[in-house]
Amino acid sequence: MKLSHNKKRNTAFLYESLVAELTKTALTQDIKTQDEIVSILKEFFHKSKPLHAELKLYKEISGLNGSSKRVAMRVIEEAKKVRDTLDDKVLFNEQTKLINRINKKVGEKVFDNFVPSYKNLASIYQIFSKTTSIKARVLMENSVINELCVKPLVETVEKPKLSKAAYKIFTDKFNKKYADFTENQKTLLKLYIESVRDQGLELQSYINEEIGDIKKIVEDYSKTEEGQSLSESIDKLRADINSLRGQLLSEEIIKKVLKLQALAEEIKNG
User: Fold this and answer.
1) According to the model, what pLDDT value does residue 85 have?
2) Are 122 and 7 in contact (CB under 8 A)?
C-alpha cells in the first residue's frame, strides 16, 4: 500500500539526514558547517525538547531488529500510546523551525541525503499519523514487524559470533579496565566499539558535541584566577581542541578526546 509521506515532517528522517550531513562535513573538513549542524542538533534534539521525545519513539521501533513478532507488536502498541500524548501542533511548529534553520544555515541538500532506514522510518511515520486509516495502519505495522523481525535467508558473510560466556568475560574486563573512567568516556568508548553498525554516524555526532562541551569548560576555566595564571597551558589546550575539528575518525582521535574528557572532568571537580 502506497501512502503519501512528507519526509520533511518525519522527525527521524530530519535527524538522520543531519547526522549524514555532519559526517560529510567531517570528510571535507568543513568546520563552519559542522559547527552549525552540531548547534542545530543540540538545540532541536536535546532530551528536553519535543522532537527528542518523538525521535526516541522512532528509535524504539526501528531498533527492534531480531526481536520476536510478539515483542515487536507490544513495543509498537506502547509507542503509539506515548505518541498520542505528544502535542501535534508543538511538533509541527518545532519541525518548521528546524526546516527553516536547515535551509538557512546548511542548505536544502540535507534533505537529499541517503538514509539507509528510510523505508522503515516512512512506515513508522504512517503508523503515528492520525490521518492514516485503521486498515492502512495495521498493514504498515505488519510491514514494519516483518521487515525487522524476519531473519535473512542467506548470510553473504559469515560473521564470528561471540558466546554469552565470552561476551561476559569481555564486558567484565572492559568494566575493570575502565572502572575509573567518567560516564562520558565510557559512552565514547561504547560508541567507538559499536561504530561499525552505522558507519560511525552516532559516534561522529557525539564527538562533536563533546568537543563543544569541553571547549566551553576550558573557556570558563580560563576566566578564573587559577586559569589566568596558566594562560600558556590554556592556549595549548585550545589548540589541541581546535585541531580535532574536521578530523576523520581514528583510534588516535578517540585517544585524544578521552584525554580531553578526563581533563575537563578534573577542571569541573576543581
Assistant:
1) 96
2) yes
* DSSP per residue, 241-256: HHHTTTPPP-HHHHHH
Q: What is the DSSP string of 72-119?
A: HHHHHHHHHHHHHHS-HHHHHHHHHHHHHHHHHHT-GGGGGS--TTHH
Q: Please state which of the ranges 17-26, 39-48, 62-71, 247-256 shows the lowest mean pLDDT.
A: 247-256
Pull the grid cell for residue 170. 569481555
Stated pTM of the model = 0.59
Cα–Cα distance between 101 and 107 in angstroms, integer? 9
Q: Is the distance from CB of 95 to CB of 51 less than 8 angstroms? A: yes
Amino acid at 92: F
Over residues 133-159, the pLDDT tens digits come to: 999 889 989 988 888 886 543 443 444
Q: What burial letters (b/e) apply to 48-61, b meaning 16+ CB within 10 Å?
A: eebbebbbebbeeb
Least confident window among 20-29, 75-84, 261-270 = 20-29
- 189's CB contacts (< 8 A; 6+ apart) are 174, 178, 181, 254, 258
Tens digit of each residue's pLDDT (9 = 90 or more) over 225-253: 888 888 888 888 888 888 877 666 677 78
Domain limits, the chain: 7-149, 164-268
Residue 222: C-alpha distances to residues 102, 123, 134, 216, 229 (Å): 33, 50, 59, 10, 9
